[in-house]
Amino acid sequence: MGRHAFRLRRLRTDTELAEFTAHYARYSGYSVEIEYLRLARVFATFDGPDLVGGFVLNVTPPFRTLTRIPQPARARCEMEIDETDTQEFTCAWLAPSLRRSWRSLLFWAHVLHQGGKAGRHSVIMGTEVPALRDFYHHSRPRPLYVGPVVVDGVEKTGWVYQTTLEKRYFGILRIVRHRLGRALRERLGLPAGRPGPRTEGRMPVRMRVRAPLRMSAAGKAVLAQAADGGWALVTGASSGIGRAYAEALAALGVDLILTSDDAENLVRVAAALRAEHGVRAVAHPLDLADPSFVDKLPGLVDGRRVDVLVNSAGIGIKGPFTAADNAAYTDLVHLNMLAPALLTRAVLPSMLGRGRGAVIHIASVNALAPIGHSAVYSAGKAFLLSYATAVWHENRDSGVLFQTVLPGTTATPFQARSGSTRLPPWTLTPEVVAAGSLATLGRDLVHVPGLINRTYRVVGAVLPLRTKTAAATAVMRRSLGV
């Protein structure tokens, strides 16, 4: 970079916009159409003659971020937005060499300042990049959507937030505090601390992985054995909680057999785990909602020693009971209830013969009470909790560990697919769920991540059935926006 002033200006000509698109594609890997830029306000940062960063403010609906969201979630998001008073902040990027410098601070201050000058009072922001998601939290946003988004033809997990621009100057101060604190820690040689801005309090999603530091001796032994020539079979591994388990186990050196009905994403996840952790990761696209998958189990395991089974695959149906058809409920029962039982039945005998192994079921706090607008899904999770606990009791002295995980609302594509659009402040990330589960394996027969969820479990145990059903249904209706 040359020794020139770091400056920001608006781009107006097609030549300038074409240069912007080329740089954006180079540094972000994504494309943006010039037609979109012509309708928006495009700002770029220069280091001398070099274009080194930029961002787009769009005040003309339809907003590009929302077009990436599948229906009907898009319609629900559009209902939440006053288009006459909202702008879109998108296509933000900065050259990698500048992202940790004081110039990055100046760039983001420019972004927030220009956002407030555009004649609108609120802004929507969308991204599928975790680092940028963390940075958006400086503006204390309201979550509109968490779930699958399509970017350049590829489905990813994305986030869409809305924030008021009156908060932009407080956002600038939080940026300054965060950057100065990081620089001071680096100068003093202290630990890096938080990887991004603070996300507690009013933040909609917890970004940090919080798990007990001490793992039980039994849990350590099982995971060590799995890392020594064993395998972990993880269902629903293409995204969400299943993928988080696959990543956590791969980090421990455990080889993986991964299943999901999303073949494209599953293959990509397996390749990424092999490249990052050096483990063997085999992708087996499989629809567990089809009971005939049992006939394919021998080929799936293929003589491998399965030491860990994570039953994570599942679907949700939320809304009035009569709104879904028979086929949807049949698939739910097969995938959420029958598949975990049959998979456990297939791998448990060999674990019992060795006297060591682990079976983890991903249920839900919905198992703790009947919930209107989620009748069959909640009942299915209650079945999973009951069945898994009974199997544990039968084999409690065998050396095989059992655990049923009851996560609450978790920021995964599952939420959008099942109809939830409003995530509560205590929403967890999949990494929190997986890390807490593995850390308490062998100690917690039923693991409930998150203080709010644990409180709900305790309070629900003493409430009358009608009361806790009514309370849980009220929360469900709010999450569905009805």
Features:
single chain; 482 residues; alpha/beta; seven-stranded parallel β-sheet; 14 strands
Short description:
43% of the residues lie in helices and 20% in strands.
Strand content: 15-25%
What are the low-pLDDT stretches, counting only 5+ consecutive residues below 50? 194-213
Q: Give me the side-by-side strand order of the main sheet.
A: 1-2-3-4-5-7-6
N-C termini distance:
53 Å
| Proportion of residues in helical segments | 40-55%
Describe the fold and architecture.
The chain has 482 residues and is α/β, with parallel strands linked by helices. The chain is 43% helix and 20% strand. The protein is built from 17 helices and 14 strands. The protein has a 7-stranded mixed beta sheet with strand order 1-2-3-4-5-7-6, with helices on both faces. Strands 10-9-8-11-12-13-14 form a 7-stranded parallel beta sheet, with helices on both faces. Helix 13 (375-394) links the parallel strand 12 (357-362) and strand 13 (400-405). The termini are far apart.
Topology (elements, then pairings):
Blueprint (H helix, E strand, L loop, with lengths): L5 E6 L2 H15 L5 H5 L2 E7 L2 E9 L5 H4 L5 H8 L5 E9 L7 H15 L5 E6 L2 H7 L5 E10 L2 E11 L3 H21 L28 H11 L3 E5 L4 H12 L3 E6 L2 H15 L3 E5 L11 H5 L4 E6 L14 H29 L2 E6 L12 H20 L5 E6 L7 H6 L11 H10 L6 E2 L3 H10 L4 H16 L2
Parallel strand pairs: 4-5, 8-9, 8-11, 9-10, 11-12, 12-13, 13-14
Antiparallel strand pairs: 1-2, 2-3, 3-4, 5-7, 6-7
